[in-house]
Amino acid sequence: MATAKTATPDMTQMMKDMMSAFPVDTSSMESSFKTAATLNEKLSHVAIEAAEKSAELQTKWMKDVLAKMGDMTKAKSEPADYAKAMTDFASAQAEVTAEHMAAYAEIAKKVQMDTVELMMAAGKDMSEDASAAMKKATADATTAAKKASTAAK
Description:
The chain has helices at about 10-20, 25-70, 80-150.
């Protein structure tokens, strides 16, 4: 009884051969990745800077509140002085709150402006990358078509 030896096809080599028949230029993908990574870095910087400014503002605000609260809690000689101290505290807090909310609004406005500026620049960069990739693909396709027509003659 003879057994026939069957050869197992080398799938790895077949895949290599197939992929080499369809070369892919990854430079445009690399360029797009670099552009996206740069955009992410710049957006992260904007967010971190805004968080730092917000934290500083919050700390200052809290210190102001605690200082004014210390004044309010001091012992008074007359009962009416307690009511006046509370009224002064509430009035001062209303004023300080308006100032701090305006400062938060300025931080938010700066973040918005920086983000829009970055997105517009990134859009321009990505448009240029896409345009360059399309031009290269068109040139490669034209070259391949010319080679194919020359080989067919």
